[in-house]
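ok here's the first one, seq then struct tokens
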Amino acid sequence: MNKTQPSPPCFLPVEEKINRVCMRLPCADRQHVVLTQLFKHIHGRLHERMNVVLREHNVNPVSFTALTMLYSAPDTVLNPSDLADSTGESRANVTRICDELVARGLLSREPNAEDRRRIDLRLAPDGSALVEALLPTLQSRVHSTYNVLNTKEKEQLERLMKKVLGALDQ
């Protein structure tokens, strides 16, 4: 018995194309392709929802994530490598993001107190204020997405997503 959820209308054209590929290439694992495309589409849609709010403040989701990670850090300080790890972005992209945020006065670069060769990133007061102003709105906008799930389903989704993410790290 197939217990999968019917596809929402926005995903039907994608699923039809996947089905055609799998008919032409029987070696393609349809379910894996569907799952991968679902992750991609959900990620994109969540970013679209965030962008509605962030665009008004000339911030993109990746930059806001960086600001939020700094906001959560002890003394609002992280080194660039830790920021890259916590945002899931490449070090090169973190450098570019930080250049933009420094230019806007939302964070600063400072020499590390213990190792002068290292640089620390410190969230500026304007960066903290931006996170505090936007986070509640973003949470209500993005998190309303998950209202279609009950508590047990959310816990299960979180567990399964962590399991898949862990497999990607192996």
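and now the second one, same deal
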Amino acid sequence: MNILSKKITLIIFFLIFISDLRSQDKDNPWVIGFGVNAVDFYPTNIHGMKSEAGNSTKWFDQFFNLNDHYNYISAPSKLSIGRYLNESFSVELAGSINKIKKLGSIKLDKSISYYAIDANINYNINKIIGKTSWFDPYAIMGGGFNAKTGNSNGLPFKNYGSFNSGVGSKIWLYKKLGVKIQTIYKHFFNDGSYPHFQHSASIIYKFGGYDEDNDGVFDKDDVCPDVFGLVEFKGCPDSDEDGVPDSEDNCLNVYGSVKLNGCPDSDEDGVTDELDNCPYIKGEIKHNGCPDTDGDGIIDQRDGCPTVAGPLSNNGCPEPDTDGDGVIDRLDKCKFETGPADNNGCPVVIDNNYEELEAKLVELARGILFVSGSDKFYTKNEDQLNQIAGLMNDHNDLKFQIQGHTDSVGSEETNLQLSIKRINKVVNYLVSQGVDKSNLSTKGFGESMPIATNDTAEGRTKNRRIEIKIVN
């Protein structure tokens, strides 16, 4: 592989590692470059040639035939400086040297020194194809002067001005550093100055922007030009790295939340730790960051019953309702008997015609016996249940409440659940006998309302009972 091929291969290898790319722009308007160039006369239908063997009649024929047609020297042979004008145009002044040993396919007896100076205007092709950060293709138009005097193989070489056109691209490798590859066609209108392509590859460096604090934000755009900062904050610092610039950070040296102007919120409840009365327990803003689990308006740490809603007057705990009629004992004038709220918790006095019916239902219901610790009633009790169902069906305009009670054997919670199971057993049986379920309501009391002592077997048997109330 020849030297020029190696250099081009090396440049291509560098392209694989492109990173942190920035195109030339108004922030770094100047670009300098140095590199190598190659001159190729072959694919140009050379004007003024005296030997037809020196060129191809086909444009771009063997365009990449480095070994047979390219003229180059094994040293840096091109220097350039360019200036950004606007998003569309830039200008460039370049100087290059070479040794002409091949005029197309003709090998010269002696080499001809080649000197060129060119002034070109470049048009940014990204204006057409779309902007990129690392790839700047451009079209070239301009002119130059080529000095190459002497004779070889009977062919004259003369100095003359050229008309230039071509294409190229700047490829930015890292920040201000990149490579430039371009091809220019130089046309002449006199004999002895032969049209040719000049290919070049250069390392380029852009400069001209000022960044006093070296934070990557140019001074003209840097809100904090004397302090190292971040690009996303226009050059201003974020000391605690919480995403809030120091100028807007209310807790400058403590990592915090963007939503809370840089102040920490350990429990993420929307209240800054400084103002949070419960900084490590998620709470509510209206309670200064403390939780109120049951939503009764009393924070948990002051709530006697934090998981059950209750009034402040009772320390956040629900007030008792012994008979379960929905009227709290404090307001219930009959706290051991169920009744509606509009009657102060007392049962509504029913028509005398129903007193006898209710008494009969109570008598029958208390005759229903359950196995201790179970919701199973004895088969012999089906007669009482059938009579109860008959009475209810005869009075299907009435509403009945089925109440369940147990003895005190076992825990209160167990007995409460047992009383509910017994009620459901009775209700299911009554419904199976045609009673309208919508006429039935239930209430379990567990062991809380005994009618006899629980110290004897006889008393406990009486306490394991069902009662029925008319609740119209």
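notes on #2: Helices lie at 3-15, 66-69, 126-129, 352-366, 382-394, 412-432, 457-463. DSSP finds seven helices and 13 strands in the chain.
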